[in-house]
Amino acid sequence: MQVGHPPIIAIFLLLLGHSMGQLRRTTINRQINGNRTHANVKAEKIVLAAKYFLVDKQSSQTTQVLTNGFNLEYTIRVCIGTPPQCFNLQFDTGSSDLWVPSVKCPSTNVACQEHNKYNSSASSTYVEDGGGFSLEYGTGSLLGFRSRDTVNIDGMVIRNQTFVEAVDEPGSAFVDVIFDGIIGMAFASLSGGITTPFDNIIRQGLVQRPVFSVYLRRDGSSQSGGEVIWGGIDRSIYRGCINYVPVSLPAYWQFTVNSVKVRDILLCNGCQAIADTGTSLIVVPLRAYNAINRALNATDNGEGEAFVDCSNLCKLPNFNLNIGGSTYTLTPKDYIYKLQDNNQTLCLSGFSYLEGNLLWILGDIFLGTVYTVFDVGQERIGFAKLKKNSTYGIYRPTYVREPPSYGIDYSFYGDVYYRYFT
């Protein structure tokens, strides 16, 4: 009797295994500030205000000194040029620009001088672009100019990638951070017409699917901060199903949260949120911020930050976020930071406020509790609950069927879409 199917199945499985084996993985390095202070939080908020075009009152104070870096930083290693010049770049889904310090920055710019710098004259693949670049921060403007070169991310060689050589980094917010620059992973509409690195990765056929997924590791003392998986997902990291919701508009990774509750208090009903790996905080609208402080019996310092009594942490409530019909829970361990100021331990609520903000900006307080899939091709974002004692770092080829894409009339929202959501 002739048996035809087993060989066909074997070939199919072989091809499938080879296909999934093409997923590329980049280790995320995590740097926890060993002496977390209130200044760390202020530094983060200066950068957040710039990304979201918001006002940070405290950043305009000339007496403010930010010398401790950020509270928590996630970076990946990226090399530019031929031969490669390598940098630790903040992995930031809340922006779309790729920038690194330039060897042309003045000797008086401390932040630039204390980090790795790109030297175009040392690269045989450098192409002059010449376009200017400016990004406003509360402490001044980050200034630079555009260049093009080969960019290498763990063997993914991106040809002719446009990036920014920064020649002036403002204030002191970037002086002691471990990252040299930033690689933005949001949509190209935020990048001023520059093709983003991931868009070029897709166009140049470096991944099989226009997707990247992220696992941020918050626990433990290890510098291993998780992984970026380019072109697919890893089922060994999460349990259950991936819960997808459509991106509201392809700019930030913005989506609808059905509700947020603490105890019996409804903080959000159909509000707009952004997944932002570039911050450790959750920044919320003013009304929600005030309600959260009442629920936590927290004291606001007048600068959009609130503190709780460290002796009452065990009595604090959980927060439940309903996204796409699934509920994700944040415990006090997730959203309370212990800081050191003047030899005193303070307990800071991770829920913060920036003037003018109407969105829920979800940093690693939330993203560190889930596995997140950023689906560029279908303009959607997916969340899954992490496995307990996740076998992080072990790759197991799997095939996951994806539901069809969503149809959204983005033109309805206009250019300042984020101002229309509350």
From TrEMBL:
Active site: D92, D276
Keywords: Aspartyl protease, Disulfide bond, Glycoprotein, Hydrolase, Protease, Signal
Record's keyword annotation contains Disulfide bond: yes
One Pfam family per UniProt: Asp
Disulphide bond pairs: C105-C112, C268-C271, C310-C347
GO cellular component: a single term: lysosome
Start and end residues of each Peptidase A1 domain: 74-384
Biological process according to GO: proteolysis
One GO molecular-function entry: aspartic-type endopeptidase activity
Record's signal peptide: 1-21
Family per similarity comment: Belongs to the peptidase A1 family.
Name of this chain's protein: Peptidase A1 domain-containing protein
Protein species of origin: Drosophila yakuba (Fruit fly)
